[in-house]
Amino acid sequence: MNGDHANNEKATANGIREWKHREKLKELGAENLKQKETADLILFLASWNTEKIADVGGYEAGERLSVTSFYAKYFLSRNRAHPPGM
Q1: pLDDT digits over 37-49, tens only?
Q2: Is the pTM of this model over 0.70?
Q3: Is residue 21 part of a domain?
Q4: Which helix (H) or strand (E) holds 37?
């Protein structure tokens, strides 16, 4: 039984490329947040939280979800790993 070695190598390379991209976004996001004034940061995070609550169907729907389910639903449905702008 022969396998396609190139497919394994391509999958590994794609995985590394995606990981590097996510890490770069995290780094850029952290630098961006460090430059914000405290008041701006509070407003930014409040608007992000408001968006998350709306995405899961509102406050009451969010309250019915466990913390894990809430974040899984938000991040998996939006394919997000970070707040907007990060």
Answers
A1: 888 888 888 888 8
A2: no
A3: yes
A4: none
